[in-house]
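Researcher: Last one for today. Full complex below.
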Amino acid sequence: MDAPSPSSPPAAPRIATGPRGLPLIGVLRDVRKDVLGWLMRTATEHGPVARYRFGPARSYLVTHPEGLKHVLQDHVKNYTKDHFSYSLFRRVVGDGLITSQGETWLKQRRLAQPAFHRARISAMAEQMVRATGDLAEHWSEAQRSGEPRHVVRDMMALTLRIVGEALLGTDVRAEVQAVSAAFNVLSEQTVERFRSMRIIPPVLPTAYDRAFRRANHTLREVVARVIAERRQRLEDRGDLLSMFMLARDEETGEQMDDAHLENEVLTMMLAGHETTATALSWVWVLLEQNPGPEQALHAELASVLGGRLPTADDVPRLVYTRRVLDEALRLYPPVYVLGRKVLEDDTVCGYQVLGGSSVDISPYVTQRLPEFWPDPERFDPDRFTPDKIAARPKYAYFPFLGGPRQCIGNNFALMEGTLILATLAQRYRPRMVAGYTPTPEPLVTLRPTGELPAMISPR
Ligand code: HEM
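Model: Here's the assembly. Have a good evening.
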């Protein structure tokens, strides 16, 4: 079927077409079976805006960059986070920067923003490389012993440690295992609850609900410890946690209470580690599958670093390393789908979008549209040369979203990813164990299945 063109919208909004689905449940069953396949088919068959029912909710999938700019930037006030998915996140992180809205969000965003300024992030480079160096020791040991590593697990532990130390000034190494396990339970259950539209909170005495409550409790305990430690020695260390703790409301002089602080710390831990870790995990898969780009990466690392560890000053010169990361984020954007609630009737790309419905957007789909990405499945870091970037519409590529709710940690993540990759790829080539095939596992983020078991080979 020919996709309708988004350009020159007719005077009266058109009614979008879409997959029919079943009575009562709509497309729920197909989404549960294979969410990525369903998203791709829906966009290919129905064009820039598709219409369907997700359970009882009337929904639209908006995939064209023009429509995304409208939803995320130009008419952002009409597209809120009063979406079912965020009510589930709120059960985990409460009202933190990702889930809050309106004045509360704006105040917190302004408060947090200085912690993510370029100069501050650069100051964290040394710590990022040091933490990566510790993982390198484990990889050297694995190389000697011939034991496989689980690369996803390694990347998760590393990025969690980095967020803990760099942003929160806390050593979370002792708790990494417990925290990761708890996040996994919450992540899996959040997705399952979303796909089955299970709205009741996890209060039942079932094993399933108990596992949710236990995981939540574990995280809250760790975060409470981080805050209590800091309360004992309340000093300005210039990190994000100091900023949150010392900030006073301009009018009332009030400071954030512990409950609110817990939500913000948990939000940063959650948003700041799993995303970067999944992106890096895919980088290793893609490098193994694409010897040309892998060699180009090694050549750049040899010429820029010549065997020494990278610093913040090297980052602007690690141009190809960054492109590898950008291209991995195109093919496997960690946040592959998200939703917004529509306040009032609107027109998007010439199509009617009714108030009260949901809009779904998917970097995974848009970043594979052949119109903007020729031969979309091919891994080609050279898609990110400055001229090629300038030739594409902004929202053809948006792994960090865009507009006011754009990821606050994007520069942090890109610097961290570049440094981790440069440090490890200089010395090692992880190689997937025989018989393992990486496929995307669509949970809250998009990770490779089975935690990516790999043997560590030397460069
Ligand atoms: C490759 C890594 C990352 C990716 C792909 C990513 C992606 C995203 C996306 C798509 C959003 C929008 C979510 C929404 O509207 O529901 C977001 C928001 C956010 N991210 Fe990231 N993120 C990454 C790394 C980080 C890091 C390292 C941090 C913190 C250290 C972070 C903190 C946040 C926060 C706090 C928000 C909410 C911002 C707001 O609404 O004001 N992220 N991220």
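The radius of gyration is 22 Å. The longest strand covers residues 49-54.
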